[in-house]
UniProtKB/TrEMBL annotation:
Segments for region (Disordered): 1-44
Protein name (Swiss-Prot/TrEMBL): Golgi phosphoprotein 3
Keyword Membrane recorded: yes
Protein's cellular compartments: Golgi apparatus membrane
Keywords attached to this entry: Golgi apparatus, Lipid-binding, Membrane
Any Gene Ontology biological process: Golgi to plasma membrane protein transport
Lineage, top ranks: Eukaryota, Metazoa, Echinodermata, Eleutherozoa, Echinozoa
Basic and acidic residues bias: start-end ranges: 19-34
Protein origin, superkingdom: Eukaryota
Cellular component GO terms held in the UniProt record: cytosol; Golgi cisterna; Golgi membrane; trans-Golgi network
InterPro entries, per database record: GPP34-like (IPR008628), GPP34-like_sf (IPR038261)
Membrane-topology descriptor: Peripheral membrane protein
Species this chain originates from: Holothuria leucospilota
Primary location: Golgi
């Protein structure tokens, strides 16, 4: 009888221990999200979203447009939206149950319906909020990009995202608007007028993998870590490393490869990790 009581008691304690650990993890996650949010809003420099920073890295400064050969930036910008909503505590991926699903198979859930004040983010949040049943991160990236074979889901595509982001940057004084003639057609372009804003973005990406390299992604600022992953997924990371010396370039690329070799499912289970961010990373690394 005694052994049965002890065994039951041990099981209860073990269960409570797991529950407390899980609760502690979620509290750390919420605290980390709050810190990220505060840091974003308290910045004295021009505040740029992840989408704007990735677009800025991809823009040719004088010409004011992204490379015609870049077919990755569209989905990369949608990934930025999902991470941005995750960092701001608006969405999350479903919690692990008894069946441990991989990040790629876990559904995106709305955590808070509070508007962000950013038109693109609020549009994406509304789409996620009104969709039943919930969908996974990889599927949402495809839906928001319009890369779906399902004609009934084409309405989920967010259109003219690059142009709308460029207009945001014009309003922030980072870009300007011009018309350029390309023989067969005229195109609206957005050359960089605030070179310092772009240089700050380039510099912080460079510093993250050189002078401030920590060798541990969980010691890096989540927004900055996301920027490195999404800049790579959008095929614009090379633009940030182009000014580097050959030696620094090799070091930077070696460290980026170390990040790309990380297992998102493993990293997402560590204390303070943002699971939504790692789910997006997993979607681009699959």
């Amino acid at each position: 009888m005694t052994s049965l009581v002890r065994r039951g008691g041990g099981s209860t304690l073990q269960h409570r221990g797991k529950a407390n650990a899980e609760e502690g993890k979620h509290e750390e996650e919420d605290t980390a999200q709050h810190d990220e949010e505060e840091e974003f809003h308290d910045s004295k420099d021009t505040r740029l979203t992840l989408m704007e920073e990735v677009l800025l890295l991809g823009l040719k400064e004088k010409e004011g447009y992204t490379s015609f050969w870049n077919d990755c930036i569209s989905s990369g910008l949608r990934g930025c939206m999902i991470i941005e909503l995750g960092l701001r505590g608006r969405i999350e991926v479903e919690k692990l149950g008894t069946r441990k699903k991989s990040l790629l198979n876990r559904k995106v859930l709305v955590k808070s319906e509070q508007v962000t004040g950013d038109v693109l983010l609020d549009e994406a949040l509304n789409l996620i909020k009104t969709t039943k049943p919930p969908d996974t991160v990889p599927n949402w990236i495809e839906l928001l990009s319009g890369e779906t074979w399902n004609p009934f889901k084409l309405s989920f595509q967010m259109r003219q995202v690059r142009e709308r982001l460029a207009k945001n940057l014009v309003e922030k004084g980072v870009l300007t608007t011009e018309k350029q003639n390309f023989v067969l057609f005229d195109m609206t372009t957005h050359p960089v007028v605030d070179a310092a804003a772009k240089q700050r973005t380039v510099k912080k990406v460079q510093d993250a993998v050189l002078t401030r390299w920590t060798n541990d992604p969980h010691r890096m600022n989540k927004r900055l870590l996301s920027l490195i992953y999404l800049a790579h997924a959008s095929d614009v990371l090379e633009n940030a490393f182009a000014p580097l010396s050959d030696e620094d370039y090799e070091t930077a690329m070696k460290r980026v490869r170390e990040l790309l070799d990380k297992d998102p499912d493993t990293e997402s289970m560590k204390a303070g990790a943002n699971e939504t961010m790692w789910a997006v990373v997993a979607a681009f690394l699959k």
